[in-house]
Amino acid sequence: MIDVKNLKKSYKDQEVLKDINFKISKGEIYGFLGQNGAGKSTTMNILTGLIKYNSGDITIAGFDMKKEYKKIINIIGYLPENPKFYPYMTGREYLKFICEIKGLDKLETSKKIDKLLELVKLNKASKRKIGGYSRGMRQRLGIAVSLINDPKILFLDEPSSALDPEGRKDVVKIIESLKSLKITIFLSTHILSDVERICDRIGILNEGNIVLEDSLERLKNKYILPVYDIEFSNNCEDLNNNFNKYDWIEKIKTNNKKMSIYVKNRFKADRKLLNIISNIENTVLSYKIRKSKLEEIFLQVVNNNE
């Protein structure tokens, strides 16, 4: 659905994007991650046609960005980080205004507005003036605006940035619901917990380069080795010697009845750890594998790249 090859962008002598490549399949939610200044916004602005690029090839839904830009504009939706509205309009009035600009007939406009307001949970606030909306409500209205032309591809630039926890939860839930509509979503964000919840794949941009791209599950298996948290019925601080002799165990932390085992090889740990524990004369109360976090992967990849 989106195919970017050898994309480069410079501002005078500053090279912002250095030959980046990535692909996004139809219906995917693709998380585009990076630190401030990595080039995320520049990439977003290029893909939505807001700024030009120096070199490279961009194909969106089979259309060439340089040759068929107008066709691309008709099939994409875009939510900027800080969408602007007329504060004196109500939410319904603003959506009607946008529909009129796009040339939709009155019957189609009414049905579409009702559907969009329901989707972004603003139907009860549709007659309130936008100037009285919270930031979260404005972001949800922005999502509705971006969906007016029934886009095949949706670009979202930091949609949950600067929102309170409840507002962010609402926005993320709406984005998640768009999966059923088979819309391809390019999500630029720095909120990693949101990415973990809704994204199918991620790409990490660092200093103008894509330094990592894969599904979240494969990244967790590749980059983060698990920690096994065990709770015993009695104090376990004298049990370290039972584990220290194994080269696939990296380190052990104990605290009274609790033990955390950090491993170098998950395959060996899954096969052998339970057997070792079963031979210890200290009853196990709980045995859990600690889940990897995207934040750990992100920091590891960025720091290694630097």
Low-confidence stretches: none
Number of DSSP-assigned strands: 14
Count of separate DSSP helical elements:
10
Spatial strand arrangement across the major sheet = 6-7-8-3-9-10
**DSSP helix fraction:** 25-40%
Query: Beta-sheet strand percentage?
Result: 25-35%
Overall structural class, as computed from helix and strand content, comes to alpha/beta
Compute the average pLDDT: 90
- Largest sheet descriptor: 6 strands, mixed
* Alpha carbon gyration radius: 24 Å
| Amino-to-carboxy terminus distance | 31 Å
Task: Note down, in words, how this protein is organized.
The protein is of the alpha/beta class and 306 residues long. 34% of the residues lie in helices and 29% in strands. The protein is built from 10 helices and 14 strands. The protein has a 6-stranded mixed sheet, sandwiched between helices. Helix 3 (91-101) crosses helix 4. The longest helix is centred in the middle third of the chain and has 14 residues, at 106-119. The mean pLDDT is 90.
